[in-house]
Each structure stands twice: as structure tokens, then as C-alpha cells.
Amino acid sequence: MTQLTAPPAAQRLVRYPMPLPMVYRRAARLIAAAGHRQTVVQTAFSRPPARPGALTIVAAVRAAAASAPAHGRSQGSDREVRRLADDAITYLGMRLQVRGADQAWIDVASLEAHITDWGDLPGRTRESVVAVLEHVADASERSA
Fold first, then answer.
1. Distance between CA 84 and CA 94 in Å, rounded?
2. Helices H, strands E: what count in the chain?
3. Is 9 within the bounds of a domain?
4. Is 130 among the domain residues?
């Protein structure tokens, strides 16, 4: 009698609760509705943020990944949602350039910082963030 074992984690198929393009489009809608918030270092003399409901790009992508999926599919486990959000952050972070430089590290935390740096550039607007998220959604559809 043979004993069945699970394949290594790298060889397991990933089942996302929703496709990556849907994550980017939902994140774009969230930012379009709530606004884009650049990160600000708070000090004792800082004013409160101008738009308290606005989202950073990373927060919008993570919220979109955790939102209820379409097409009657189940929400997915916490592990699947986290993996979807991490993969969406990775795909987005690898496509952005900050001041002409690509991302040097490819771990999720470094890519989140890279995306935040891109979003924090002076003059970054809600419209430019939404346009880039829509463009990345289209690119991820073509590559799928």
C-alpha cells in the first residue's frame, strides 16, 4: 500500500478567490471613490490628513483582494486572500519605476515600500493612480 503525501508548497496549484485584473480594477474604484493618500510622517506639530478616508495604493490593493468575489465564488480562506494580495502587490511593484529606478528587492515588504514610494512622489494624483491600476489590470489580463 502506497502512502499519499502532499506536494511541496511550491508545486501546489494556487486557487485565487478572484483573478488579478479584478483586484486592480477594484483597487482603482476604491481610490477613485475615496481618494489617494500619500504617506505622511506624523509629528507633534502635524496637521490632520486632508482626506481622512483616502487610501494608500497598498491599502487599496489589499482591501480589494479581501473584498467579496464576483461570480458566486466563495470568499476563499485567509491564506488564499493573503496570497492573492501578495501576488497582486508583487505584480504591481515589479512594473513601477521610482525616479527611473526599478525595484532592487523582490520580497513583498520591499515591493510595498516601492509602491508607496511611487505613490508618494510629488504631484501624484488620484487620476494617475487609477490610470496605472487600470493599465496594470489590462497587462495582467494579457499575460494570463
1. 15
2. 5, 0
3. no
4. yes
The verdict on residue 137 lying in a domain is: yes
Distances, alpha carbon 126 to alpha carbons 53, 132, 144, in Å:
13, 10, 27
Task: Give me the domain span that covers residue 28.
Answer: 16-38+51-143
Give the integer Cα–Cα distance in Å for 57 and 86. 13
Give backbone dihedrals phi and psi of 135, rounded to 5 degrees, phi first.
-65, -40
Kindly give the confidence (pLDDT) of every residue in the chain, 144 residues in length, as a single tens digit, with 9 standing for 90 and above.
444 444 444 444 556 778 899 999 999 999 999 888 877 655 555 555 555 678 889 999 999 998 866 555 556 678 888 899 999 999 999 988 887 776 667 789 999 999 999 998 888 899 999 999 999 999 988 876
The count of structural domains within the chain is 1
